[in-house]
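Notebook, student rotation project (T.W.).
Task set for the rotation: take a protein with a known small-molecule partner, predict the structure of the complex, and write up what can be learned from the model alone. Partner molecule chosen: zinc ion. Sequence and SMILES entered below by T.W., checked by me.
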Amino acid sequence: MLTSSQIINMLNQAKVRPSVHRLAVLEYVANKQTHPTADEVFSAITSDFPSVSKTTVYNSLHTLVESGVLRELEIESGATRYDLALQLPHSHFRCTRCGHIYDMALPEGLDRMVSPGFRVDTTDLFFAGLCTECIALSEDNQSAS
Ligand SMILES: [Zn+2]
Ligand SMILES: [Zn+2]
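Predicted structure of the complex:
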């Protein structure tokens, strides 16, 4: 959980002016840990800022990605999700039943699998399947029937 002053520090370090909307957007993405889509960020922000426009939220997300504070994840096609960029490299697991995105470890040295002469800038690794909760739920259903 990041405090407001940690969030402001992050923006200052990235040389992004900490407007109220950027703060709200970054605070939501950083502390929710759900890897939200732009639409999810927008609906969450409107509860605190009813007058905020979709464009403002989208622009804030864009600025935060451009400045390296957030990064975009393309886990399923057509839905860009957002994650803090300034954290240890990790992979993602998408539960195909409940749709949750979970952070998972990323083995070190994965970029050694890239052919010689190529330069790796980012590594994205995604898993898909059932999370522990959904497996437990389906086992409950099986024993009940
Ligand atoms: Zn699940
Ligand atoms: Zn993540």
